[in-house]
């Protein structure tokens, strides 16, 4: 169980090789017959009005034929530059040797014959003041391995996909009445090679291990923390300089396609973390691109983020809207991704986000809403769902903004789902209390059901909960070692039986004592210890229970899918509720939030019959004490909790038990 291969690829500081581990998925003899002509009048019109979706087809470095010659057509937006030229390894990085021509749209264009796949290049951009800055291509499809910062010519037509079955059927996996269980993953620290200087795995090495692990653990999707090119490892990908390029740290663009392709062939959906809220100030990046504040807002009260020391996109500028719209669609088109989790949406929506009075500028109506960002978010969601109706668009939005996951035609922002940050904060705060005090905080664990169906929610236990000194989930649980593990089992079991889709950060299934370390592999050695292995088995079984029990997923986003049996039992500190499938068939969930065993606990049931325990977090195989109900519980015609029938069960300490009836 959970076996691992021994990676043997090249060292991480070198350019990763393009060697397939599971077969060949790259065309052997690519041809570049496409004609490249640059932007036409329609393109520039749409670009200027903020609705252009095709930047990745006309701008950046387009490899193809031009007047019978093979080469690369370059196009870059720099309206305030006085001169722009292409520099690279083909001209010894000489400024001005390959100048581009300006246009009324502010896009500079030109063709360089003879360039081929992999050529390195940048733009030498001269400002009106005469200062020249070497800039990476904003629409580059590939880049050098950091710390080098040049862009790289890349042809997306080379890759031959093998995921047609998944692509034709993925809509069956994405609707609100389907089970969605997401494994959030950081590419650089899921698994490292201790025999080769602790280097990270390549995309293709990940393809040889990750899909099988996710399949065995029962997750339906993987969410990759940002894989777009970024200069600083410590940003975990959240400070992007290359929005159209998967980071070269782990291989080439085709290698990343191979990873997505392989995941799809294993029936695993792929969600990318996407960061349109801000970008870093690195000299080669988007900031002050043509000597002016082009992509970012010129006013630092709107264009500089005090928390992250980064630039904020100028959402009021149409060309910036086109850039981000094209980028969102690009990942669906070229990389077959299944969804985007949009980072820090709240910071986009509010002009006063993380700012004190006097540090922000109201909108034209005197309000705090960022109208340009709202327009952009709606447009992106509309266009993605129009092109890819089976997509997943998920917002990390931490405020009470109304209608985040409602359609735009119904006044919403148009996302499919929203992270329930309130559930996460309330639940973790509640479980941090000593169980003897939990009865005084009962509303903290039950409040969620007041708003649970106001949006389509994902319940997240993400990387944010195990970083920056917060410790690990296990170490934040109260009590002795046994109680800490039991509380963690309680947390996971409660999440999987609550209404909402699921997300768990990698490694949490191993129950580490220490918070996540992005510079090292997950502590896989913990699988050798019974209590940690028990948590891993618990997560695997919870995924299986979730996917095999329609009552636990069909009503994730519908008030008909949840009913309290008793949500007010603060005296015993017990939660009892029903989850229901589309036909009303129930699963009974009992959660004992204290370490006291409840022998002979009576609970009301919706109908007469035999009720069978299908899951118990206190099972000894999970490291529990074994207070279970191995025999079916026959109902009695004894009225209890406003129901005509009831059953008597053994309720485990700090445990969750799930019952169904035939």
What does this structure look like?
Among the domains are: 41-158, Immunoglobulin-like (Sandwich); 559-661, Sandwich (Immunoglobulin-like), CATH 2.60.40.1180. Helix 12 (481-497) runs parallel beside helix 13. It is an alpha/beta fold. The chain contains 13 helices and 30 strands. The chain has an 8-stranded parallel barrel with strand order 9-12-15-18-19-20-21-22. The protein has a 6-stranded antiparallel β-sheet with strand order 23-24-25-30-27-28. Strands 3, 5, 6, 7 and 8 form a 5-stranded antiparallel β-sheet that branches.
CATH class placement of the domain at 41-158? Mainly Beta
Helix content: 10-25%
Fourth CATH level, the homologous superfamily of the domain at 41-158: Immunoglobulins
Kindly state the number of beta strands.
Answer: 30
Q: Write down the overall geometry.
A: elongated
Are there runs of 5+ residues with pLDDT below 50, and where?
A: 1-29
Strand order of the largest sheet: 9-12-15-18-19-20-21-22
Total number of helices: 13
Q: For the report, how would you describe the main beta sheet? A: 8 strands, parallel, barrel
CATH overall fold name of the domain at 41-158: Immunoglobulin-like
Radius of gyration: 27 Å
Distance between the termini: 32 Å
